[in-house]
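Hey team,

Filing this mostly as a record. A colleague (T.K.) asked me to run one chain through the structure pipeline before their review meeting, and I want the input and output archived in the tracker in case anyone asks later how it was produced. No errors, nothing strange. Just documentation.

Input sequence:
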Amino acid sequence: MPLSLISLLLILAIIFFHAKPKLSFKCLLSAGLLLVLSSTGYIADRLMLPLENDFDSFTLSSKPVDYIVILGCGHTSDESLPATSQLKPCSLQRLVEALRIYKLHPEAQLITSGAALHDPVSNALKVKQAAMLMGVPEDKIIVENFPRDTEEESELIAPRVIGKNVVLVTNADHMNRSVNYFQRQGVDVIPAPASNWVKAIDGEKNWAYYFPNSKNLRQTTIAWYEHIGLLAQWFKGL
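Output structure:
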């Protein structure tokens, strides 16, 4: 990840400061350039765009939808808060998109997914609780408590939904890998990307767009992670 590489280069710059000052300077300069480039909106958007550009937003399906699958992300249990406030942004974004689709297709059942990795409650159950707060009847929600990652989600959910009209909801940057996993299990899903990072790519940008900030660094990190994930997925498929 960019921040890990930057930290490593800074450590090397310190280690070689006296023994190899030229190498130390090169490491320091490389760390600075990498930090600046990774934190600018222009670079972040160009890295993210290929991940988000393959799938359009979901519109009304021409035939009834059987299932809306919401892939897991994360939450922190805190019973003093409503379930919607316990969800991490990625889980909340996916839930909001699923609810939008559910309003278009109330005949569908929701499938929430995700294990309890670092929390006593599974992400699937927490998203179900949040969906119920937003008005979805309990009997319209199926919970898959055990998948620990996207590959396991596709393996465990596929037997239930194969041959059905299935909408898959996940973040736009994560959609490529997710669709690939479900297709390998024989499920032709309808992609429903949520919360795109890149918006109005050809629109007019103000000066702040070209200056470093932490949001852009996070976007670059997520884009890099997904590109590496697609490469790993390709190798595993050989």
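Quick notes for T.K.: Residues 2-52+214-236 form one domain. The two ends are 25 Å apart (CA to CA).
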